[in-house]
Amino acid sequence: MVTPFTVEGDFDEGSVPELTKYYIEEAKAPGLLISGTTGEQHCLTIPERKKLYELVAKSSPEGYPVYAGVAAFKTKDAIELAKAAENAGCSGIMLGVPPYRIPSQRELIAYVTDVANATKLPIFLYNNPNRNTVQVEPESFVHLVKTVKNRNVCGIKETGVVANVEKIKELLGEDLAKQQSFFTGGDASYVNLYKNHGFTGITSIAGALFPEELMSINQHLQSGEIEKAEQVMKALSPKIQLMQKAGFLQSLKYLLRQRGAPAGYCPAPLLDPTDEHKALLKASI
C-alpha cells in the first residue's frame, strides 16, 4: 500500500482511512503491507509510522491481514515500531535491513533476533540488496528460523538472489521449509519465480490497479494452471513496463488518483510523471 503525502511532501494522515478502504473494497486486496518500500517508510518519522499502523488497522475489518514494515536505521527504533504494530492490532511485520549502514551477517542476525524477541507477531524478512547493499544470506535466515526465542520468523521477501529461496529450502529441510513463506515483490517476474524457483506468494504493487489480473494469476498458480497464469501475465506485462519507464511508484500514485483514490504524491525529490508519460499512462491503463 502506498502512503499518501501532500504535494509539499507532508504525511497526509487524514487520507489514510479512505485509501485503506479503496485497497480493500475497490482493489480487493486480500491483505495489506504498509510502511514498506512502496509505502516510502523512510520518508516518515517514527511517530508518523506508528500513526499509520493505527489508522490502517482501525480502518480494516476485524481479522483482516495487515502487515507493517518496521525497518529502521537503529535496532531500538525497529523494536519500538514492532511493538507499536502489535499494539495497533497488525497481523504481522516485515523487517528489512537497516538502509545505508551495511551491517555484517553477525550484526544482521543480532538485529533480527532483538526485534523478533520483542514481539510475538509473525515476522517475514525483506532481502533487498539493490537498495540496502547487504544480502541476507541463506545461512543467516535459516539460523534465525531455528534460534529466535519466539519462533516467529516465518518467511522472507526475496528481491536479491533468486536462487537463495531454493538454497534456504534445502538448508531447512522439507518439513521446516513448508512452514515458511517465500515472497517476491516483482509483479512481472512472479509467475516465473513461482514456477521455477519455489516462491509461494507476492507483495504486489500493481495489484492496486489490476486486482482481477493478479487474483486470476494467483488462482491459476495455486491450481497448477501455469500456462493460464503466464497468459494473464503476458497481457499485463506491457502495462507494468510502461509504468516502470515513467517511474513505477510515481505512476502508481498518479493512476490511483485518476481512479479517485487519495493516494497523494511522492515526496521530492521524486516527481510526478511528465505530461507526456501521463498521457501514455491514461491511454494505456
Automatic annotation (TrEMBL):
<protein>
    <recommendedName>
        <fullName>4-hydroxy-tetrahydrodipicolinate synthase</fullName>
    </recommendedName>
</protein>
<keyword id="KW-0456">Lyase</keyword>
<comment type="similarity">
    <text>Belongs to the DapA family.</text>
</comment>
<feature type="active site" description="Schiff-base intermediate with substrate">
    <location>
        <position position="157"/>
    </location>
</feature>
<dbReference type="InterPro" id="IPR013785">
    <property type="entry name" value="Aldolase_TIM"/>
</dbReference>
<feature type="binding site">
    <location>
        <position position="38"/>
    </location>
    <ligand>
        <name>pyruvate</name>
    </ligand>
</feature>
<dbReference type="GO" id="GO:0008840">
    <property type="term" value="F:4-hydroxy-tetrahydrodipicolinate synthase activity"/>
</dbReference>
<dbReference type="Pfam" id="PF00701">
    <property type="entry name" value="DHDPS"/>
</dbReference>
<feature type="active site" description="Proton donor/acceptor">
    <location>
        <position position="126"/>
    </location>
</feature>
<dbReference type="InterPro" id="IPR002220">
    <property type="entry name" value="DapA-like"/>
</dbReference>
